[in-house]
Design goal:
Elements (H helix, E strand, L loop, with lengths): L8 E9 L5 H15 L5 E9 L2 E11 L2 H8 L2 H10 L8 E7 L11
Length: 112
């Protein structure tokens, strides 16, 4: 496990095997979770997407100011609501990794 200091940015990235035929329900739950999570102190980014080569794989990408912010996220009330919403939509065990980031620089910015 990498060393995590109080000022270490945390990145979380993972995949969830899902029932792709339930995309509308998945998107509704994910969008509700994203909106609530972005209001949390320390949340920099929080996104869900589907793999372009497999509609049965949902991906998550999160950026947190620090470990304390991520820890608080795990016990936020909307986390329990989201987990309950996913209960019938996730078809297997998620694979989620946490990365401790010591620095960040922009590679490209295509926003106009």
């Amino acid at each position: 496990m990498p060393t995590i200091t109080p000022d270490t940015t945390i990145i979380v990235a993972g995949t969830f095997p899902v029932d792709g035929s339930q995309a509308a329900a998945l998107l509704a739950a994910a969008n509700e979770m994203r909106a609530a999570t972005l209001q949390e102190d320390g949340c920099v980014e929080y996104r869900f997407s589907f793999a372009t080569d497999d509609v049965n794989t949902m991906m998550v990408f999160e950026e947190w100011r620090d470990q304390d912010a991520l820890t608080a996220h795990f016990v936020a009330p909307h986390m329990a609501v989201f987990q309950a919403a996913l209960a019938g939509l996730v078809t297997g065990a998620p694979v989620v990794d946490k990365f401790a980031v010591s620095g960040k620089a922009r590679c490209a910015d295509h926003r106009r």
